[in-house]
Write a structure and sequence with these properties.
By secondary structure, the chain is an alpha/beta fold. It has 2 domains: 69 residues, no CATH class; 148 residues, Rossmann fold (3-Layer(aba) Sandwich), CATH 3.40.50.720. The chain is built from 8 helices and 10 strands. A 6-stranded parallel β-sheet has the order 7-6-5-8-9-10, with helices on both faces. The relative contact order is 0.12.
């Protein structure tokens, strides 16, 4: 691999950005592509699919055999609120291969007994996220119903471009939330990215069922990112 390409590849990976090296197997010539770069033609479609799947492989385009070496950061899930839904959601997310963190300053909820084996932070989100910032490969699910706890991480998720931002609450609750966010300088376009009510509409009734709906929506959003209509 060209040393310059390798240097750029390492920088992108260190900064948790998705990147791909496309190599012509006949000539050995490589090209580095970052997720979001404009790539025309058939290669663009293949590159987009590669970033969404995270899988490397060989393809043939216009008579050339190309190897796509794909590097996508491991997706993370940050859950705001150590509630019943979170107990089920953290288990599902871990099974799906997500790194999981739960944040809740309410020590009555944020206990190791309720979240065994989970990265649990019994502190305010603004303090935790200062040292562990959100990024584009992080999903954020705000589940406390308390604006004092949920609002900051939700706004931060929108500002940094988390691939998924979801919030528990009714449409009436969300309308009040958008009023607060407007006053905080969040744009209408940014607020449209909030999944509220959170989760796919599967008529979920129990905390575990709601967790299934939320995790399914997170996976769908991650795997379809960059596609039209999302």
């Amino acid at each position: 691999m060209d040393i310059e390409i390798l240097h750029k590849l390492n920088i992108e990976r260190e900064n948790r950005r998705a990147v791909m090296v496309v190599t012509d197997l006949a000539t050995g010539k490589g090209r580095l592509i970052c997720e979001g770069d404009t790539v025309d033609g058939d290669l663009g479609a293949v590159v987009g699919k590669g970033f969404r799947s995270g899988k490397s492989g060989t393809v043939e385009i216009d008579g050339a055999e190309l190897f796509l070496n794909v590097h996508v950061p491991a997706p993370r899930l940050v859950v705001i609120g150590a509630v019943h839904i979170s107990q089920a959601l953290t288990q599902m997310a871990a099974l799906a291969g997500y790194d999981v963190k739960v944040i809740d300053p309410r020590t009555a909820f944020a206990t190791s007994e309720r979240f065994a084996g989970v990265d649990l932070q019994a502190d305010w989100p603004e303090d935790v996220l200062k040292d562990a910032p959100l990024d584009a490969y992080t999903a954020l699910a705000a589940l406390t119903h308390d604006p004092k706890i949920d609002d900051f991480p939700l706004q931060e998720a929108l500002r940094v471009g988390c691939f998924y931002v979801g919030a528990l609450g009714s449409r009436k609750t969300h309308a009040k939330r958008t009023d607060r966010f407007t006053q905080a300088g969040i744009t209408e376009v940014q607020m449209e990215k909030i999944h509220a009510p959170i989760g796919l509409n599967i008529a979920a009734a129990t905390p575990a069922e709601i967790a299934v709906a939320v995790m399914a929506e997170i996976i769908e959003t991650f795997r379809k990112r960059g596609m039209a209509g999302l």
